[in-house]
Specification:
About 30% of the residues lie in helices and about 35% in strands. The chain is built from 4 helices and 8 strands, in the order βααβββαβαβββ. Strands 1, 2, 3, 4, 5, 6, 7 and 8 form an 8-stranded mixed β-sheet that branches. The protein is globular. The termini are far apart.
Length: about 150
């Protein structure tokens, strides 16, 4: 297995990322397509999209966007079922964190993680900040945050 991580920079790469997300969120988790795809998927430049490829096969996708003046928000983190347990979720999150740091666009990162993945995000340094879990697209989530540096 030769996994390569890239920042999406073409319509074809965006399409590949959307295919991963459709497989994971729409087919597997039954999220309605109209809730999965939004204005940040209108082009590869609408926000910062990432892709992990096994050779030429897209196997993981994620994106982040500027949330407010000092915060970025990770979203739509998806790894194909047969590639889970190989550290690819951690890898794509670390790619996004490194990108956010190197571009200097945020001092903190938030995400709305599925409650079943909360422990995974804790291991990556995220803290739960929502008082109660909440439903998003019919799936329980918690708001989490990680401080990159103090302002």
């Amino acid at each position: 297995m030769d996994i390569k991580g890239i920042v999406v920079s073409s319509d074809e790469q965006l399409k590949q990322g959307l295919e991963v997300r459709m497989e994971v969120f729409v087919k597997e988790q039954q999220v309605p397509e109209e809730l999965e795809i939004d204005e940040f998927d209108s082009s590869w430049e609408a926000c910062r999209h990432f892709l992990l490829l096994d050779g030429s096969r897209p196997v993981a996708a994620a994106r982040y966007r500027k949330y407010d003046e000092s915060t970025a928000k990770l979203q739509r983190i998806a790894v194909l079922a047969e590639y889970r347990g190989l550290g690819l979720g951690k890898r794509i999150i670390e790619m996004m964190e490194d990108d956010i740091r190197s571009r200097g666009i945020a001092s903190a990162i938030i995400l709305d993680g599925q409650t079943q993945a909360e422990a995974f995000y804790h291991k990556l340094g995220y803290s739960t900040v929502s008082e109660e879990p909440f439903l998003d697209a019919g799936i329980w989530h918690v708001r989490m945050i990680k401080t990159l540096f103090e302002e």
